[in-house]
Specification:
about 210 residues; Jelly Rolls; 8-stranded antiparallel beta sheet; dioxygenase activity; binds 2-oxoglutaric acid; alpha+beta; about 20% helix; 5 helices; binds fe (ii) ion; oxidoreductase; ALKBH3
């Protein structure tokens, strides 16, 4: 009896799903009207979700390299991407659930739903993203939110005031949620720096409102 109960409890935790947000989200207020919300371990069954979404996984995510034109040269940015625009079916039902849960939780403060899902695959410590704000479109002039679910190897998200200043470092672990809010995209910058430590792959899933990128 006890054994069976424990077995079923363990199964529940291995299943891909979401823990509650209400009462479990911790806010850190930064300067200049920016803030960060953190909900460690939001996702359950993160191992299973990672194996579904990764390169060659059963979800069939079409991961591709990003080509960016810089100084008239096309350069490969060091990570793989797949961007899901609004209306596109997400590669796993839990991602649709996550988008609904985030839209519900932040409804009053954000005033609109999360709509798009950008996914990034950092294959190892050499993959990275340089300092930037998600400033395309409205995010350059208006407060907004970018919610990130992280699975796989923990990597550090670094944040600093735009133009320089003391940086903040937040390790994003397997199944964690972080939300950058307020003026964070225009008054602060963020990056996932390369690391020389032997780290495995990480997938980041970013939910954004319409027109934010
Ligand atoms: O890897 C992450 O979680 C951050 C990705 C990011 O900042 C972006 O793609 O705009
Ligand atoms: Fe970003």
């Amino acid at each position: 009896m006890t054994f069976a109960l424990q077995g079923s409890l363990l199964d529940q935790v291995d299943e891909v799903g979401l823990r509650p947000l209400a009462g479990a989200v911790q806010r850190t207020v930064l300067t200049r009207g920016a803030w960060l919300d953190l909900r460690p371990g939001w996702l359950t069954g993160a191992d299973e979700l990672f194996s579904r979404l990764t390169l060659g996984g059963p979800a069939g995510v079409e991961w591709h390299g990003e080509r960016r034109v810089m100084w008239d040269k096309e350069i490969e940015t060091p990570r793989l991407l797949r961007f899901y625009d609004e209306g596109e079916r997400l590669p796993d039902p839990v991602l649709t659930q996550a988008r609904v849960a985030l839209s519900d939780y932040y409804r009053d403060e954000l005033g609109e739903p999360f709509r798009t899902a950008g996914m990034c695959l950092y294959r190892d410590g050499r993959d990275s993203v340089a300092w930037h704000g998600d400033r395309e479109g409205r995010a350059s002039t208006q407060d907004t939110m970018v919610a990130i679910v992280s699975i796989g190897s923990p990597r550090a998200l670094h944040l600093r005031p735009a133009g320089g200043g003391e940086s903040v470092r937040q390790v994003l672990g397997h199944g964690d949620l972080i939300v950058m809010g307020g003026s964070c995209q225009r008054t602060w910058e963020h990056a996932i720096p390369k690391t020389a430590r032997p780290v495995g792959p990480r997938i980041s899933i970013q939910f954004r409102p319409r027109g934010v990128r």
